[in-house]
Write a structure and sequence with these properties.
Radius of gyration: 19 Å
Order of helices and strands: EEEEEEHHEEEEHHEEEEEEEEHEHH
Structural class: alpha+beta
CATH class: Alpha Beta
Strand order of the largest sheet: 3-4-5-6-7-8-9
Distance between the termini: 53 Å
Number of helices: 7
CATH superfamily: Penicillin V Acylase, Chain A
Length: 357
């Protein structure tokens, strides 16, 4: 096996954090067409996701991302957008205070509640204030509303700190797995944060970010900002799955494209790749239409077809099963597969105007 020379520079951690998400809030001034964007590249131990429309009596209807399972469960949402033009996502922040052991991992419940109740960023702040404590969260919530307001709320069991994108000189905010308000130099995702900054530098400076910049550039790249090495652009056959934005545990890359001033919330589009991003593609999702392959496969199988198909392709990208085999990426396979899926994504993105009609 021809292991590339730069692997000696990479330290393999004893275990890969499953919840190693990467995210960005893009303001209207930083986006190419003036629509704000909420983007999340999801990492989780839940290996399959699906999208589903939730309409509960007396609540705001919404489309959410849910963990795949044998039965349909929609009490925990991991990203979503609602009929009022509100959208939400999160990334775990490991440098915030640890949760009360009796009440943990409640982020999905909070987001499902928010999607059913919130119309604005201020509504979400009020929700955090009134929910019973401890919240059972340790996270960066990212939210956006129909008026173009957007913010991160770095939130623990009892407190939160708000960071508005309007206060950012660049018009963007980035979060991985540490909070700016948390303990300095603790947490995770510092290198992935730097990867995003390096890869998006020009588009941030020129205000030309698109949803495809995020799902098709960031979520398909195997660039490491420490080594300055882009594995996919090299001639190497193998690389180690370490500190890239896409990881073995990646299960989605979703960009919710917000509204121009005065647009109806029905014009929102969720560009959703709900599988290991290099082995799958986005589909355009609106509040009243979820493509069949992104929803639950059927009764007794609440898993998406897109996720199941990507899992089969991942066998070629991660072919080594013994020992630490899952940490080794076959670059020849990922180049071929990702290019095919990238082209499908571009076809989907070309349908934007049609989806907004």
């Amino acid at each position: 096996m021809n292991i590339p020379r730069f692997l000696s520079l990479v330290l393999l951690s004893a275990s890969v954090a499953a919840n190693a998400c990467t995210s960005m809030i893009v303001s209207a001034k930083a986006s190419a067409d003036g629509r704000p964007i909420l983007w999340k590249h999801r990492d989780t131990s839940a290996t399959n996701n699906f999208l589903y429309r939730v309409d509960n009596p007396g609540k705001i209807g919404y489309v959410g991302l849910f963990n795949g399972s044998d039965s349909l469960r929609t009490d925990e949402a991991w990203m979503g957008m609602n009929d009022a033009g509100f959208a939400i996502m999160n990334t775990v922040a490991y440098n915030l205070p640890e949760n009360d052991p009796a009440w943990i991992d409640r982020e999905g419940f909070v987001m499902a509640t928010a999607l059913g109740e919130c119309r604005s960023v201020d509504d979400f702040e009020a929700l955090l204030e009134r929910l019973p404590k401890p919240l059972g969260v340790r996270t960066n919530f990212g939210v956006m509303d129909a008026d173009g307001n957007a913010a991160y709320f770095e939130t623990d069991d009892y407190t939160f700190e708000r960071f508005d994108v309007a206060d950012s000189p660049t018009g963007v905010l980035i979060r991985t797995n540490y909070a700016y308000s948390g303990t300095p130099d603790e947490g995770l995702g510092y290198i992935r944060h730097a990867n995003v900054e390096a890869l998006m530098k020009h588009q941030i400076e020129t205000g030309s970010i698109t949803p495809a910049s995020l799902t098709e550039t960031l979520s398909r790249t195997f660039y490491n900002s420490v080594t300055g090495f882009d594995a996919v652009q090299s001639s190497e056959t193998w690389t180690v799955d370490q500190d890239f934005i896409p990881r073995h545990s990646s299960t989605a890359s979703i960009a919710v494209e917000g509204l121009l001033k005065g647009e109806d919330p029905s014009k929102m589009i969720m560009w959703a790749n709900i599988a290991y991003p290099p082995c799958s593609h986005v589909v355009g999702v609106t509040l009243d239409n979820i493509p069949e392959e992104a929803g639950p496969a059927g009764p007794g199988n609440a898993r998406s077809t897109l996720g199941l198909q990507a899992s089969e392709l991942m066998e070629k990208v991660f072919p080594i099963k013994r020992g630490n085999g899952q940490k080794y990426i076959n670059l020849d396979a990922v180049r071929e597969i990702s290019e095919e899926q990238f082209n499908i994504s571009l076809e989907e993105y070309s349908k934007a105007a049609e989806l907004r009609k």
